[in-house]
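lol ok so funny story. i was supposed to be doing the assay writeup but got distracted and ended up predicting the structure for this chain instead. priorities right. anyway since i did it might as well share w the group, maybe its usefull for someone
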Amino acid sequence: MKKQIKIEKILLVLFILTIASLWLGLGTVLILTKIAKIPGELFTKYSWGMWLWLPIPILSIILGIKYKQKGINCTKNIIGGFIIGIIGLIFGSYFLLLNFEVDYSEIIIMSK
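and the output, tada:
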């Protein structure tokens, strides 16, 4: 019985970390853009930083399924892991989009 309570507490902490991984991923992207000294509107260049936190929701899904089969109520871990994992995967994929950065030094000014 004590072991089950310990597992439930670990799964609760993992659920909280799963939700926090979305915010931690956004913070990682912000830190990466500050380190690279690029404007904030070009954050998509470093959105792959969201993927660094994907192991937490994946672990939540795996342990949720494992302990669900053993009779421990951990549906929140499975559902939360899927939702946060999908959101993190989508937001992390923004760097694959087209690059909207423009080099204005190539503009030729024509005078009359």
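The chain has three helices and no strands. The two ends are 87 Å apart (CA to CA).
back to the writeup now i swear
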